[in-house]
Amino acid sequence: MAADVIVVGGGPVGLMTAALLDAAEVRVEVYERNAEPSGQSRGATMHPRTLEVLTMLDAGEGMRISDVLMAQGKRVRQAHFATLRATLDYQDLDTPFPFVLMVPQWRTERALAEYLRTRAVPVHYGAEVTDVEQSADEVRIRAGRTRRTARYLVGADGAHSMVRKAAGIDFEGTVPTMVGFVADVQLAEPVPAAQHFWNHEAGHASVVPLTETTTRVFGVEVADTGLTADQVRRRQTEPLTLDELSRALKAICGTDFGMHSPSWLSKANNSSRHAACYRKGRVLLAGDAAHVHLPAGGQGLNVGLQDATNLAWKLAAEVHGWAPERLISGEADYDSERRPVAERLVASTLAQDALMHNFSSSGEALRDMFCGFIERRGELAAELSGWLSGLAVGYPGPEGAHPLVGTKAPDLALSAGTLLRALRPDRFLLLDFTGDASHAGLGSARVEVVNAQRPSGRSDPAWGAVRAALIRPDGHVAYATESGAGLVDAVAEWTAAVHWPVSAREL
Ligand SMILES: Cc1cc2nc3c(=O)[nH]c(=O)nc-3n(C[C@H](O)[C@H](O)[C@H](O)COP(=O)(O)OP(=O)(O)OC[C@H]3O[C@@H](n4cnc5c(N)ncnc54)[C@H](O)[C@@H]3O)c2cc1C
Q1: Ligand 1, closest atom to CA 47?
Q2: Which positions fall inside the FAD-binding domain (predicted)?
Q3: Atom of ligand 1 nearest to the CA of 31
Q4: Atom of ligand 1 nearest to the CA of 12
């Protein structure tokens, strides 16, 4: 068989999936329709949790992919929800990345493609996959004259996924009702920081610095809302022009900021769709192939890259033949953990849609009320920051589990380095807080035991009493114990270890 896994789609999610699978020693190949890597800047808002997961990938010379991107992006402390004027402040979040990184999507794709190139992972450009079939033992694809088989296939082929259609997976959702504008331009009057404009007569527009020279402009005119699906289709076929954009900005913001030299002019709608399941047999879906929504709050790319992170280690365990049932079709499988996240993603963007596109006095009042909630810096602001940043996204544990189970572990100090840099997609970390290496006997090829220091300050106080914690390859807590009880069984259950030395069993 040519490969263990074929990834269809060389966008950011496909490339990330391939990179993590390769890091877990899975033979993987990527097939991408475009002749060369994309030059599009679409997903330019990178949230903290995404930078955390990109830290797993070693870019060489002591750098991780997150380091590579940070050198190319612009850090912004604030994130927005529904382009409200009251913003969410990330600076107190418990992460090494307490900011949004503005970095054009093509740079993220280039960093991942470069990672794959240096590891000699085949990424076939100009290779459109036109057929996907599966049997009980394998998947088969056709791309031009090439036919390939593999044990599994990941469809990361975007919103119009042919993989999803070939697998017969439904993609239900809401019909679009508006058409917004989105463009990357240069400004004669640059803005130093993001500015959001909203008025119920003209529409809304956001002007967001992207790089030293480029500014992202997006928004919608009132006349382009409340449309039928047919009107949306028609409107989207008319290309956005610089003149049209300039006129819209003047109406909404009172100026077009001396806009010129567009590098990208496009339109977006607010259709939301979600795949009925993320796995059918040997075919799995990730990223936009599994969920699409209004591009609000910069979520799509981020959630997609985290899909890849959740999927890759489980699929690698399955390929290598040791995955316990819970990872393949049980309570911790990819579908069970990631579908609820995308359901919330769709709900969150629909809520933003309501806040952004209700151009009436009541819409204005709703926005003002939400601004007030956020400005109080209380629970609502914390909840929104936790969700948008990705840091509070967790996977529920079984009843009675320690409260940390399923949460994302903080970047704890280890005896050498920190947790995020120690994570690998092919092994668990067993954090030993006893200080006397009490749990060293539980180490194996799938579990690295490391001495860890309890976090202080911003982390969940529940960490204060923990004696040991088993951390999954994606950085979430699989098991935590304050007494040591149950640890041996938890390690065995998660890693499907069949034999433990007597000394370890007695711990
Ligand atoms: C205007 C706009 C602004 C956005 N802003 C943000 C943002 O700020 N932050 C954010 O997180 N997200 C944002 N997004 C969303 C983000 O761009 C997407 O969520 C992201 O690109 C999804 O990545 P993906 O790899 O799943 O899909 P894609 O990027 O669509 O990649 C899919 C790839 O599959 C290839 N392909 C398709 N069919 C085939 C086939 N049959 N055979 C082989 N290859 C195939 C395509 O050529 C493509 O390269 C924005 C989107 C838009 C439209």
Answers
A1: 11
A2: 3-347
A3: 43
A4: 25
Q: What angle do CA 189, 191, 196 make, to 5 degrees?
A: 120
- Within 8 A by CB and 6+ apart from 480, the residues are 402, 404, 405, 462, 466, 468, 469, 470
Backbone angles phi, psi at 96, to 5 degrees: -70, -5
Nearest-CA residue for atom 20 of ligand 1: 301
pLDDT band for 90, please (50, 70, 90 cuts).
very high
Tens digits of residue pLDDT in 55-86: 999 999 999 999 999 999 999 999 999 999 99
Ligand 1 mean position, distance from CA 11 (Å): 6
Query: Does domain 3-174+273-389 bear CATH number 1.20.120.610?
Result: no
Encode pLDDT of 352-369 as tens digits. Answer: 999 999 999 999 999 999
* Ligand 1 nearest atom to the CA of residue 105, by list position: 17
Does ligand 1 come within 6 angstroms of the Cβ of 12? Answer: yes
Using CA positions, which residue lies closest to atom 30 of ligand 1? Answer: 158
Closest atom of ligand 1 to 44 CA is 8
Query: Which residue CA neighbors atom 2 of ligand 1 most closely?
Result: 42
The CATH number that domain 419-505 falls under is 3.40.30.120
Residue 507 pLDDT class (50, 70, 90 cuts): very low
Residue 408 CA to its chain's centroid (Å): 14
Is pLDDT above 60 for 418?
A: yes
Domain 179-270 fold is Alpha-Beta Plaits (3.30.70)
Residue 501 has pLDDT above 50, yes or no: no
**What confidence category does residue 499 fall into, taking pLDDT thresholds of 50, 70 and 90?**
very low
Average pLDDT taken over every residue of the chain: 95
pLDDT of residue 497: 67
Distance 293 CA to ligand 1 centre (A): 12
* Contact 50 CB / ligand 1 (< 6 Å): no
Let me know the angle formed at the C-alpha of 140 by 138 and 144, rounded to the nearest 5 degrees.
Answer: 165
Q: Which residues pair with 143 in a beta bridge?
A: 129, 146
Measure the CA–CA gap between 101 and 75, rounded to whole angstroms. Answer: 5
